[in-house]
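#structure-requests
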Amino acid sequence: MGKALHVICRARTGGKRGREGVELLDNKRMLFTSDAWVKNGWTPETIVGAMLYMHQAQNTPSEFGGEILACDLISPKSSGQPNDRYRFTFKSMHEGRGVEWRGNIGPTEQGGLVEV
C-alpha cells in the first residue's frame, strides 16, 4: 500500500506552459520542483515516496504528478507568508495523470496524505 497527496496546482495563465509554482529541474530525468506547500496531514519524513497528483480543481482528474523524492523547508518570500512552507522535488510520471481527487474536500488546496 502506498501514499498519495492530491493538491490544487493550477495551469499557468497568459499563454505560459506548465503549472503555477512548478519548475523543471532536469529534463532527462523528468525532475521538477513544486513550491510552496504548507504541511497538511503530512511531515517531510512521511511525504517522501508518496505520489503527488496535481489538479486544476477537486472535481477534475489530476493533470500532472509523480513520485515525491525530497521535501525541503524554504524561506518565506515576504513577511506575510508562513514559516513552514516546503518545496517538493518529484519525478514526473505518466501515472500522475487522470486520477480522481482523494482526501479532504472543500475549501482546501490539499487533500492530505492518504493511503492508496
